[in-house]
Amino acid sequence: MTIASTEKVKRNWYAIIWVSALHVFAAFAFLPQNFSWTAVGIAVFLHWITGGVGITLGWHRLVSHRSFQVPKWLEYFLVFCGTLSCQSGPISWIGLHRQHHKYSDMPLDPHDSHKGFWWSHIGWFFQEVPADKDIPRLANDIYDDPFYNICEKYFILMQVALGLLLFALGGWSFVVWGIFMRIVAVFHCTWFVNSATHKFGYKTFESNDESRNCWWVALVTYGEGWHNNHHAYQYSARHGIQWWEIDATWMMISVLKFFGLATKIKLIPKDAKPIAS
Question: Contact 231/104 with Cβ under 8 angstroms?
Fold first, then answer.
């Protein structure tokens, strides 16, 4: 049962402390002793693995919207990469994302953009989200999957294991850049899809919400910034449809298709009519 939109929500102090601590530790990346180009390279690589391969390709386009299919082993690998983003467990993330699409920019949208940029970017994350109680229903296709539940329960421990590996490979500079700075960067890139793409940019299709196509968000989120295209055709594996709408995640899907790993790919129909026509 969906919680009434008028119900007062409470602050989520766990999330507030968690995100604040991540930002504090990320700031140590700017100390001279923690800087190296190798550490920066590790952070950039892990940004792609966790934010691009994991969140965008795996959690979002594959699982949340089932815009294409892959073998189960590959699905689990992509879900694992997303789990290393440390944004939450995959079941919670996917359930809330489906809630967002069901009630986009309406009171039951967890990050309703009508409540302001701050709210849709990060403020909602600091509250106890009523939609959490709807996750078992919204994510019923994955809710009882053993692998998804392992990722849901142990995503923090997985991050600790990754941190220990990075420390063994390169010391604290690898940990500060590869864990804390990278997690914070992926967090904000993901949140820009909730906030900036519901405020800045242009509309190509009528989507009955405030979603927009924003080029700079697309650059830092591997194509997720073409958000109006996505909201108008949620099932499409390809978000960037014009030649200038660079969609790095669609390129990854195309590579998987070439090797026979991505099948049953759904796309925006060729006769889709834009608003201007």
Answer: yes
Side-chain-side CA neighbours of residue 260 (13 Å): 0
> H-helix or E-strand containing 165?
helix 146-170
DSSP 36-78: -HHHHHHHHHHHIIIIIIIIIIIIIIIIIT--SB--HHHHHHH
Taking the CA atoms of the chain, what radius of gyration do you get in angstroms?
18
Task: Please state the rounded mean pLDDT for residues 233-258.
Answer: 97
Instruction: Give the integer Cα–Cα distance in Å for 141 and 129.
Output: 21
Which pLDDT score is estimated for 190? 96
SS (H, E, C) 142-160: CCCCHHHHHHHHHHHHHHH
User: Over 70: is that where the pLDDT of 2 sits?
Assistant: no
Tens of pLDDT, residue by residue over 25-66, are 999 999 999 999 999 999 999 999 999 999 999 999 999 999
Reply yes or no on whether the pLDDT at 6 is more than 80: no
List the structure tokens of 47: 């940004």
Query: CA of 86: how far to CAs of 6, 22, 241, 274, in Å?
Result: 30, 11, 30, 37
The two structure tokens encoding residue 260: 């026979």
Q: What percent of the chain has pLDDT over 70?
A: 95
65, 71, 72, 78 alpha-carbon torsion, rounded to 10°: -60
At 270, give phi and psi (nearest 5°). -65, -25
Using an 8 Å Cβ cutoff, are 65 and 235 in contact?
Answer: yes
User: Could you read off the pLDDT of 8-17 as tens digits, one per residue?
Assistant: 668 889 899 9
